[in-house]
Amino acid sequence: MKVNVHAVNFTVDGKLVDFVQGRMDKLEKYYDKVVSSDVYLKVENISEKENKIVEMKVNVPGDDFVVKKQCKTFEEAVELSAESLERLLVKRKEKIRTHI
């Protein structure tokens, strides 16, 4: 799957990009018709510890799924976002299967 990683207000290192790519590749196990995905990594300048925001947008034929999570670390936010996307993609797959 083609994953575009966009870092907003900071430069992202290779380890984080590889982590995001690996986690997004696991989503194909749940729904194999994913066209592409965009991952936006943002850092908010606030005093709270949970200032890392991950927004994932997954393109499937006929739909776009967007999940946004805010956590203390990017890895945690990526995990939570990916789990939410897994549930959405499984629900989508079951919905399509019932209409056939």
TrEMBL record:
InterPro entries: RHF-like, RHF/RaiA. This is Ribosome-associated translation inhibitor RaiA. It comes from Flavobacterium zubiriense.
